[in-house]
Write a sequence for this structure.
């Protein structure tokens, strides 16, 4: 069920983008060739994303839309209704992938309940694929126990040179679950790494292209955001960049467990 219309390797994130800013970013991205747009209920921009896609001129079946269910909507009697509301905002009858945004804080809603509800929404045709975001390996195992690994199309996690999240990425791979890296550029911090800058210079590329290529070369999807056309265009060019084994190894040693997204009210006990 996850093999049709594969998840694009490079998409456009919309976190923190609002109003006309997100409309312009998505329309520009689509005009440049982006075909994956990542949003979420909590971003408060699904309607604008839907408007931008509708006005872009790109056929709906060529755009891969991901959204995420917020924690307030995890209960079995709320999840599908909230997703239907997201579909209205996004102006589509079905999204390509729906993720559980964070594990339920303190287990307030059991994993089996919200994953069961999400699987039911998939069976109803509201979403082509389902997955999770920001889970640790123990909670991901609960997800697998609830609905089966074959149901989980992707696990979206913070992953960048300073936080390579190897244990979770390896567990994903072991279970046959695709990994999507968010915050791949580390809020721009990764672009300041001397190693990254040196590799960029050697390759005649930008530091952003090097970091995105590093992640994609490991099989991860990436979803960087930008409001600038030049950056959007530059990021897209990372798909054709290839790092040597030595360059990959030099970036590998930058891992120092530097997590940037760990809100106290949401974060599980990280691996």
């Amino acid at each position: 069920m996850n093999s049709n219309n594969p998840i694009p390797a490079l998409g456009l994130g919309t976190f923190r983008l609002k109003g006309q800013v997100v409309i312009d970013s998505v329309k520009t991205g689509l005009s440049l060739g982006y075909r994956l747009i990542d949003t979420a209920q909590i971003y408060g921009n699904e309607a604008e994303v839907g408007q931008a896609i509708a006005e872009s001129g790109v056929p709906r079946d060529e755009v891969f839309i991901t959204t995420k269910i917020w924690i307030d909507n995890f209960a079995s009697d709320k999840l599908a209704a909230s997703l239907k509301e997201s579909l209205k905002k996004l102006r589509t009858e079905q999204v390509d992938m729906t993720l559980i945004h964070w594990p339920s804080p303190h287990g307030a809603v059991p994993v089996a309940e919200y994953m069961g509800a999400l699987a039911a929404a998939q069976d109803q045709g509201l979403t082509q694929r389902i997955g999770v975001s920001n889970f640790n390996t123990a909670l991901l195992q609960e997800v697998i126990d609830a609905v089966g690994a074959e149901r989980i199309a992707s696990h979206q996690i913070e992953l960048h040179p300073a936080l390579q999240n190897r244990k979770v990425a390896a567990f994903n791979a072991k279970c046959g679950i695709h990994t999507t890296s968010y915050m791949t550029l580390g809020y721009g911090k990764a672009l300041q790494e001397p190693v990254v800058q040196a590799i960029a210079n050697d390759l005649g590329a930008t530091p952003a292209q090097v970091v995105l290529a590093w992640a994609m070369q490991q099989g991860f999807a990436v979803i960087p955001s930008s409001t600038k056309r030049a950056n959007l265009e530059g990021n897209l060019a990372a798909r054709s960049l290839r790092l040597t084994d030595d360059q990959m190894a030099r970036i590998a040693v930058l891992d120092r467990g530097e997590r940037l997204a760990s809100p106290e009210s949401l974060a599980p006990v990280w691996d």
Notes: The chain has ten helices and eight strands. The first strand starts at residue 12 and ends at 13.
